[in-house]
């Protein structure tokens, strides 16, 4: 079931703000500065007292940073199931909560950024992938290698991936870990030799859109399947891991806390 937390938080902030204003400019004047609220003024004062807290949370979550949890293996090995990450909300422009209308431009995604965005198919679900193609780029995927505007993105073999806990390999699977040079960004990817790519795929990224892929190349639903990400669907840039939760490994796994997302 989809829950719009931004809408709920915005409505709660507005409602408590109205009650705070009523208490501040009406009930408080009636009872005097040194008298406690009674009657109808008491619940208004109590509920309205939450307004400053909710306002701070709304501003922080909407314009500064927001936490997200990684639910799938599409970004393994860069991000694991159970990672809790921090997303920089002002990296690509400040937007009004709920309306998602940009009112201040602060930057644009760069190739290699790990971004959170609203899934273009339903416009609501948050996805996380890596930016591969910028507006105007021609992207080709052939033999599990990327070519951007005709230039190959070189890969270096880096052994076999062996996952742990909830990220352990499926029975019989031994995906290969490679280091991909994506422009100036060097990052790990996984490819599964048992999954065969059929033919060459090519796309040209339209203006105002981005082409994204998961680092787990054979286990990611991304722009190869459902198309481009519109600029106004961007939520922010993933920056750091603040916790990893895996109860098959003792619940809180400390060795990933604070890791930078690259």
Structure description:
- The chain has 262 residues and is an alpha+beta fold.
- The protein has 2 domains: 45 residues, no CATH class; 191 residues, Umud Fragment, subunit A, CATH 2.10.109.
- It has 4 helices and 17 strands.
- The strands form 4 sheets. Strands 1, 2, 5, 6, 14, 15, 16 and 17 form an 8-stranded antiparallel β-sheet that branches. A 4-stranded antiparallel β-sheet has the order 9-8-7-13, with no helix packed on it. Strands 10-11-12 form a 3-stranded antiparallel β-sheet, with no helix packed on it.
- A hairpin with a 2-residue loop joins strand 7 and strand 8.
- Helix 1 packs across helix 2 and helix 1 packs antiparallel against helix 3.
- It is elongated and about 75 Å long.
- The mean pLDDT is 90.
Structure at a glance:
This protein has about 260 residues and is α+β, with helices and mostly antiparallel strands. Helices cover about 20% and strands about 35% of the residues. The strands form four sheets. Strands 1, 2, 5, 6, 14, 15, 16 and 17 form an eight-stranded antiparallel beta sheet that branches. A four-stranded antiparallel beta sheet has the order 9-8-7-13, with no helix packed on it.
């Amino acid at each position: 079931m989809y829950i719009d937390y931004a809408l709920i938080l915005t409505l709660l902030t507005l409602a408590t703000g109205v009650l705070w204003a009523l208490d501040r400019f009406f009930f408080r004047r009636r009872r005097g500065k040194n008298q406690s609220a009674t009657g109808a003024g008491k619940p208004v004062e109590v509920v309205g007292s939450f307004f400053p807290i909710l306002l701070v949370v709304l501003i922080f979550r909407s314009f500064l940073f927001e936490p997200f949890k990684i639910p799938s293996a599409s970004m393994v090995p860069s991000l694991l199931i159970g990672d809790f990450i921090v997303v920089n909300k002002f990296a690509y422009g400040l937007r009004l909560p709920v309306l998602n209308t940009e009112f201040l431009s602060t930057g644009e995604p760069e190739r290699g950024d790990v971004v959170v965005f609203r899934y273009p198919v339903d416009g609501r679900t948050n996805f996380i992938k890596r930016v591969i193609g910028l507006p105007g780029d021609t992207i080709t995927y052939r033999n599990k290698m990327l070519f951007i505007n005709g230039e190959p993105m070189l890969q270096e073999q880096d052994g076999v991936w062996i996952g742990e806990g909830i990220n352990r390999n499926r029975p019989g699977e031994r995906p290969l870990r490679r280091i991909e040079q994506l422009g100036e960004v060097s990052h790990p990817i996984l490819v599964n030799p048992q999954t065969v790519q059929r033919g060459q795929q090519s796309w040209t990224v339209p203006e105002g859109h981005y082409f994204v892929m998961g680092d787990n190349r054979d286990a990611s639903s991304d722009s190869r399947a459902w198309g481009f990400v519109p600029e106004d669907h961007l939520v922010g840039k993933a920056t750091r891991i603040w916790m990893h939760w895996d109860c098959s490994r003792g619940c809180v796994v400390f060795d990933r806390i604070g890791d930078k997302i690259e």
